[in-house]
Write a structure and sequence with these properties.
Layout: H1 4-34, H2 48-53, E1 60-64, H3 72-82, E2 87-92, H4 98-102, E3 108-111, H5 116-132, E4 136-141, E5 144-149, E6 153-159, E7 162-167, E8 170-174, H6 178-184, E9 190-194, E10 197-200, E11 204-207, E12 211-214, E13 218-221, H7 227-239
Parallel strand pairs: 1-2, 2-3
Antiparallel strand pairs: 4-5, 6-7, 6-10, 7-8, 9-10, 11-12, 12-13
Length: 242
């Protein structure tokens, strides 16, 4: 059971946050209308644990620093590890946390009270960055076209005249060339370890000088001349996500 003081604090906190979030959403709606944008889908949370336990894959995140149990800095670090391409904007009155926020590549750091013009400028930058990080592949598989989220791709393999795209949601075969698919993989967590394989570094389980082992019991060949380079890339990727 919560004592009266704790209950009152949480009630005041949640009430304040909800009013703040409503104001932020209204500002964003104004931004969307002014820029002729499709209306986005909003998900709101009053604490970090609720956000992290949801099954929502975020594109743009607004984080407050002061939250119950987990701070915005803690949540930002976890989000960055889980969704490295999420654009995180920190909004707070406490500028002392800027160095901590930089560790998870915070996109912008906006101080309270929110200035509408500054928010609009930063939102325009965030939308531009999001559009430049297109996360979806549009691939012809037989007579159908499939939309494949790049985050879900474990590896891509050139197999005879086909290209096989292995994902967390199944495998897709296409007659589009391996090089064509590779060029569409815009994220820095993809690495070509062999002339016939591109892997997603996020799904690496282990490796040796001959093979790279990935989730879903998959493995990719690694060219002998590329093994040292792969280890450097993988170490840099891991260090940027701790």
């Amino acid at each position: 059971f919560l004592n009266v003081t704790e209950s009152l604090w949480i009630f005041l906190y949640v009430t304040t946050i909800l009013l703040y979030v409503m104001k932020l959403i209204l500002l964003y709606l104004n931004f969307s209308e002014a820029n002729n944008m499709t209306m986005p889908v909003f998900h709101t949370f009053t604490d970090g644990k609720s956000l992290l336990s949801s099954n929502v894959r975020p594109d743009i995140v607004f984080l407050d620093i002061q939250m119950p149990e987990l701070s915005g800095i803690d949540v930002g670090n976890i989000l960055h590890n889980k969704y490295p391409d999420a654009i995180i904007i920190v909004i707070t009155s406490f500028m002392d946390y800027l160095d901590d926020a930089m560790r998870f590549n915070v996109f912008r750091y906006i101080s309270k009270p929110i200035d509408k013009d500054r928010l609009f400028r930063n939102m325009q930058d965030a939308v531009t960055a999001y559009n430049n990080r297109s996360s979806t592949l549009y691939v012809k598989c037989g007579s159908d076209y499939k939309l494949i989220n790049q985050h879900d791709i474990i590896m891509v393999e050139a197999s005879l005249k086909q290209t096989i795209i292995y994902t967390t949601n199944g495998n897709f075969r296409t007659y589009q060339s391996f090089s064509e698919i590779k060029e569409k993989l815009a994220h820095n967590y993809f690495y070509q370890c062999h002339r016939s394989f591109v892997i997603n570094l996020n799904y690496v389980v282990s490796h040796n000088s001959h093979n790279i082992y990935l989730n879903s019991n998959l493995s990719a060949d690694v060219a002998a001349r590329k093994y040292s380079d792969f280890k450097e890339h993988y170490a840099a990727y891991v260090n940027s996500h701790v």
